[in-house]
Fold this sequence. Notes:
Layout: H1 12-17, E1 29-34, H2 40-52, E2 56-61, H3 71-78, H4 95-101, E3 105-111, H5 113-120, H6 127-134, E4 139-143, H7 147-151, H8 153-165, E5 168-170, E6 174-177, E7 183-187, H9 191-201, E8 211-216, E9 221-222, E10 228-229, H10 236-247, E11 251-256, E12 267-271, H11 275-286, E13 295-298, E14 305-307, E15 326-328, H12 332-339, E16 346-353, H13 359-369, E17 374-379, E18 388-394, E19 399-406, H14 407-422
Helix pairs in contact: 2-3, 2-9, 4-6, 5-8, 9-10, 10-14
Amino acid sequence: MTSVKPNDPRTDTEGERLVNAATRLLGRRITLCVSGSIAAYKACELARLLVKLGAKVNVALTRSATQFVGAATFSGITGNPVSIEMFEDAAVGESHITLSTQSDLLVIAPATADLLARLATGRADNLVTACALCARCPIIVAPAMHPSMWEHPATQRNIEQLRVDGRVKIVGPARGEVASGDVGLGRLEEPEIILHHVVAALSPQDLKMRHVVVSAGPTLEDMDPVRFLGNRSSGKMGFALAQCAAQRGARVTLVAGPTHLPTPPDVTRVDVRSALSMRSALWEALGSKLDGADVLIMAAAVSDFRSSEIQTEKLKRNPNTKIPQLAMNPDILAEIGAERRGSVPLLIGFAVETNSDALIASARSKLSSKHVDLVVANLAEKAFGLDENHVTLVTKAGESKLGVDSKSNLASRILDWAVASLGDAR
């Protein structure tokens, strides 16, 4: 992965060439193994997501899996032939050897109770179990079965054996309704959750042993029981940063304003409402001496103003109503920047503007006044509520225009910069 070094500002043209550098599945070879569960239909969506992110996907099916999803479906999604038998093609030779040795990652989803038993005892009597036994790459196993089967001591013993062996990572199962209508622990994790662990397994663990604190979303400042001051921030950029940091091995604390976004896997989330509550949560995460984190990324759109007095009853619209005055909220990042001694935690802020001509100047002003290391400059119209963003990284050394890209990819680019900077931080 290409890193944007703090002393290596890039031109717009260079940034455009790096747009795909953060797509961590681009060209990675993944074998998706599917066993005979009613949840096999979800493997189709997982295959689609993997292909969408640039992975080269081969699919291996057990015989029983073909009773639920046909090989033609996976072939159509991946563009590759599907393997079912170990010796089905003389030209290829032993399919399990070929697939396992050529794969960067094996994903078994869904994995039935029977398949877990076979894996735990080292069986190799079908293509999927043989692939797992041959593989020297990481293996992700996503179980799916009736809750009674999952809770059975034999299944739990098999899961424990797999964990002790240390060869596989177990993802799930989730709690919810299964095919029979019963509710419990045994449902296959959603494809997006499995995808998160796939990306993590193939990502550099360059933030391992680091604590990254991220703020995200808007703050809402109550005026009375029904009204508040707010903004249009969706939180998508901050959540993408939190998820990407977790995938790269960091311990992540996400301080989130009001948003309906789901918590990224492996992320500790602290929900807040107002700027003052966000301030308290961030100081708690960072520690009074700022020694509790390695990186702070202030992606939240913190309200600059709040009502000077919160009314206990709804304000009535009439000539005699006294409209509350506004008070300035504290500048959280500036406070932290002023208290920092040395270069840790690394401080990354965001500058959002509505005037493109003032964007870089505003970012440079914040860089200086808030004593931060990096300001991510973006326009409100190209950022709020969207899945993509158009940002410029601004440091004392220069500017790096990253161009338009998904917020997930941009998050990876920002963290590339953070990793490069942490290498020099003391």
